[in-house]
Amino acid sequence: MAITYQIENDLPADEFTAVLRASTLGLRRPVDDPERMAAMVRHANLIVTARLDGQLVGVARSVTDFVFCTYLSDLAVDQALQRQGIGRELIRRTKLATPQAKLILLSAPAAVDYYPRIGMTRHDAAFYLDDAEDIRG
Predict the structure, then answer these.
(1) How far is CA 88 from CA 1, 4, 39, 120, 132, in A?
(2) Which uninterrupted H or E stretch holds 52?
(3) pTM
(4) Other CB atoms closer than 10 Å to residue 53's CB: what's the count?
(5) Where are the beta strands (DSSP E) in 53-124?
(6) Which of 62, 67, 76, 108 could form a disulfide with 46 if both were Cys (CB 3.0 to 4.6 A apart)?
(7) pLDDT digits (tens, 9 = 90+) for 64-80
(8) What angle do the packed helices 34-43 and 13-22 form, to 10 degrees?
């Protein structure tokens, strides 16, 4: 089994959606909204993929300025192929594509213990905002 990795910034949205569904990440992404999924792929500017015999089995989708920060917004590996180093390699290749930038991600609840095991540092000062109406002041 030879996994091939490459940068595919023109990844078809249907392939992206399929790998999210095949991983646990599909539970927390709008996989039933094809327009939104297409926009997610279209507006990302660094997509690293893993393929097995041409089939997409893993993806790391990021938004980056390439010199200061890279936000790895989606890391998904087909459940049937997890625990084989594919996710780690997708992260490594994302970092290699943006060597000056700090790689940042928000972990899925089930993966919180995974990232420190592969050498990433936990950061407790991350914040998010879902709705502009939630801003107080």
Answers:
(1) 17, 14, 26, 11, 34
(2) strand 46-52
(3) 0.93
(4) 9
(5) 55-64, 69-77, 102-104
(6) 62
(7) 999 999 999 999 999 99
(8) 110
